[in-house]
Amino acid sequence: MKKVIVLMLTFSLCHSGPGNDDDICPFGGSASCCNICPTNMEQRITSLETRLENAEKEVQELRRLTQGTPRVAFSAALPGSGNTGPFTTATPLTYKKVFSNTGNCYNPSTGIFTATVSGMYFFRFSMFNNMTPAPNSVVSLMKNSERLTSVWDTAATDIHDSGSNAVVISLKVGDNVYVQLEPNRAVYDDGMHYNTFSGFLLFPM
Ligand SMILES: [Ca+2]
Fold this sequence. Notes:
Layout: H1 2-13, H2 21-24, H3 30-36, H4 38-68, E1 73-77, E2 81-84, E3 91-92, E4 97-102, E5 106-107, E6 112-114, E7 119-128, E8 137-143, E9 146-153, E10 162-171, E11 176-181, E12 187-190, E13 196-204
Antiparallel strand pairs: 1-4, 1-13, 2-12, 3-11, 5-6, 6-11, 7-10, 7-13, 8-9, 8-11
Helix pairs in contact: 1-4
Bound molecules: calcium ion.
Calcium ion binds near residues 129, 154, 155, 158 and 160.
């Protein structure tokens, strides 16, 4: 309706006669007159409508990214006190003390985070071992069956007993991330929660 009204007003101001635009242009010149004649005005309105539609789509996409998408974040620690391990095979550490688990992507029964949203993620883990004597500690952050990064600690009466590591990685729906205790290794905690596993979604992709 607005488009029709604009076109009617424009046409009433700029009714050109055949072959002589300069005589009837209300703005005193053929060039300026042509800029507001119905054909050009309609093209301008169509262009503005297209730009408005595109802007509305961008706003909707931004709203979807900032408000409408799932929120994923978790943080957990090894429970209780004492050794975990050694085991003869590589074993996911089960961080049963859950601090947060928005989105419920982390399973404290298995220690495995499973992506329900494709996107870029941040993960961090820490490890502690002050056992003497005992196996050295080696734990690795895993994406499915791929080892991403690891931390080592030598069991002895040394003063270096903890370490941490982190990654930023892209995940697809169904990808698993977990911290793996390597075979014949062990970690220790005394209830102070030195051993943690945390992660969150940075942005969907
Ligand atoms: Ca040590």
